[in-house]
Amino acid sequence: MPTETLEFQVEARQLLQLMIHSVYSNKDVFLRELVSNASDALDKLRLAALRDDSLEADTSDLHIDIEVDDDARTLTVRDNGIGMSYDEVGKLIGTIANSGTAAFLKELKEAQDAAGAEGLIGQFGVGFYSGFMVADEMTLVTRRAGESGGTRWSSRGEGTYTLETVADAPQGTAVTLHLKPADPENNLHDYTSAWKIREIVKRYSDFITWPVRLVPKPGDGEDTPEPETLNSMKALWARPREEVSDDEYHVLYKHVSHDWRDPLETVRLQAEGTFEYQALLFLPEHAPADLFTRDFRRGLQLYVKRVLIMDDCEALLPSYLRFVKGVVDAQDLSLNVSREILQQDRHIRMIQRRLTKKVLSSVKEMRAKDPDKYATFWREFGAVLKEGLLSDPDNRDALLAVASFASTHSEDEPTTLQSYVERMKDGQDDIYYMTGESRRSIENSPHMEAFQARGIEVLLLTDPVDEVWVDAVGEFEGKRLRSVAKGETGLDAVPDDRADDGEKEKQAEEYAGLLGWMKEQLAEDLKDVRLSTRLTVSPACVVSDTHDLTPALENMYRAMGQEVPTAKRILELNPGHPLVRHLNEAYQERDDRSGLVETAALLRDLAVLAEGGQPKEPARFVKAVAERLERTL
After folding, report:
1. C-alpha–C-alpha distance, residues 396 and 475, integer Å
2. Alpha helices in 496-617 (DSSP H)
3. In a 10 Å sphere around its CB, with 0-12 CB exposed, 13-18 middle and 19+ buried, how is residue 331 labelled?
4. Nearest to 37, CA basis, from 49, 29, 25
5. 233 by DSSP, 3-state: which?
6. Could you tell me the pLDDT band of residue 551, with boundaries at 50, 70 and 90?
7. What is the CATH number of domain 404-483?
8. How many Å apart are CA 366 and CA 375, to the nearest integer?
């Protein structure tokens, strides 16, 4: 096949220009990224050879070589891993189609400092192109394991690249950088220097499973020095805690997560006995943007006796802990396993149970010892952790013990359910909560008025999952979880102005006619109309019946493709409000009440608006309000 000259996509050209005229202060990261890519290629070859006995590939001496030529000013990172086919080079290298370029550029512009910008390279999988920070030209020669022909890719980072087939490429991939002149003032070091290469590999790649070797330049004599292995290859999770620094843990975290930040917490676990395994887990500091998307890649790296078996083993942790990164190294699993086998393996299920409890206990300990760190964790991952209240009943108590919620008790400090119970007023039997889009919208809701008047604490739940888990959990320490927007409150609206039973009966009798008439007129939309004990200021509110779905929950199920009937709501009127009193007086004085129908409908729509909903017929509602306003002028 003849040599092809192709153009990069527009965003790819922008990315290349950023790499060439780099904003990155630490250009050493280019070698970290190339070594990391080579390590991934070796892992993939080992996995492919385990799963396919017919694969014609040499796995006897897997390694990464770094070769330098100070005369030609070139640096080559070479591996004998899985390699790439011609089509794969065009797709993965030529177009940057899978590199998240647009998101990378957006994040780069928003990065607050150079340190933050540097880490974005690995996070968005564009590490290969970081080579243009130090090179005028890059060449890649590769051959996929099991194939006979190879591919050469070359570019000067100026908008075009070339592709051609080659016959004599060895298995694996070699990336050659034609280095720019050293420029210490702009942090551009001499990357042909052996000591600089040793420094970078030791700092960033010491833990990599495969040997990273510095290959000396061939001399004129017959005795050529042996390659020098630069990394220890000792798995951090297999070393005693006191022998590993936090910096080493952080480097490993960045390698497995592609996050540029340090982890928020490191969790170690070593299980001994009939089934041995080691785990090194990390809780990130920030939630990834795609955490709640279907395509989010989750799972831990699974090793068996230090051999990587699976890069993203989902079976090791439940879905609600999908943000946790790290590695698990088991001693007694088979090397030749599939995802389907792992789902059924009793050892894997045992590991999942143990890891889940360890993560939750670590979060609980974090809350006790470092409240600020816990606050960061819960702000970033609380919403996803609460999914476990639905999906993991075995750990529900542990989840409730680490969960915290905004409440009316404090503007700034969230509360635990335990603390809420300890503050409950005498005679209070229920834990009250309300769901909504934001704290402000909940606090301004008419449903809250009686609770605010009596000083009763209410949990303010604003995550979509809150609509569901409260019904699934039901209670905490014998106290029922009760929505202030559903059913009867059992409260008097104003505690200092309570009516005795006789006055209540008189009031109910006084409004009975209006309530029955409104229920009849609005029967298409409402289940009932009744007097309210939850309102002190607003004229009316709509509530759901005790066991009905809320409108938000109905919408959530519909968004998931489930058909649910629309439940009729209940309209509650505040008998102490002038509008309601005057409406009742008009009802009692008139024989022809047709003119009051529109007022009753407006009162219902106002109640719907007050809770953040939308009138059934917005245009008709606006017209009616405009006409009323006109008559007042």
Report:
1. 11
2. 501-521, 551-559, 578-589, 597-610
3. middle
4. 29
5. coil
6. confident
7. 3.40.50.11260
8. 9
Torsion of CA 282, 352, 328, 312, to 10 degrees: -80
Query: Taking the mean position of all CA atoms in its chain, how far away is CA 536?
Result: 41
Distances (CA, A) of 227 to 207, 216, 258, 611: 19, 6, 29, 72
- The SS3 call for residue 261 is coil
Q: pLDDT per residue over 52-86, tens digit each?
A: 888 888 888 999 999 999 999 999 999 999 999 99
pTM comes to 0.70
Contacts for 577-583 with beta carbons within 8 Å, 24 or more apart? Answer: 577/535, 577/537, 577/538, 577/539, 577/540, 579/539, 579/603, 580/539, 580/540, 583/514
The class level of CATH for 496-632 reads: mainly alpha
Task: Give me the residue label for tokens 């950023």.
Answer: 18
**How far is residue 475's CA from residue 481's CA, in Å, rounded to a whole number?**
5
Q: Which of 369, 413, 405 is nearest to 389 (CA)?
A: 405
The CATH code of the domain at 4-229 is 3.30.565.10
**Of 126, 41, 118, whose CA–CA distance to 92 is shortest?**
126
- As a whole number, mean pLDDT of residues 14-30 equals 67
SS (H, E, C) 13-50: HHHHHHHHCCCCCCCCHHHHHHHHHHHHHHHHHHHHHH
Strands 64-69 and 212-215: parallel
- 441-477, pLDDT tens digit by residue? 999 999 999 999 999 999 999 998 998 899 889 999 9
For the chain, what are the domain ranges? 4-229, 236-377, 404-483, 496-632
In this prediction, residues 336-352 reach a mean pLDDT of: 74
Q: What strands lie across the sheet with 479-483, from one edge to the other?
A: 410-415, 405-407, 459-461, 430-435, 479-483, 475-476
* Residue 313, φ and ψ in degrees, nearest 5: -80, 105
pLDDT tens per residue across span 205-248 = 887 889 999 998 876 556 677 899 999 888 889 888 898 999 98
Closest CA relative to residue 19, chosen from 148, 165, 133: 133
CB 546 within 8 A of CB 483: no
Helix 597-610 × helix 618-632 angle, to 10°: 110
Query: Which pairs from 263-266 meet CB under 8 Å and 24+ separation?
Result: 263/325, 264/373, 264/376, 264/377, 265/362, 265/366, 265/373, 265/377
Report the CATH architecture of 236-377: 2-Layer Sandwich (3.30)
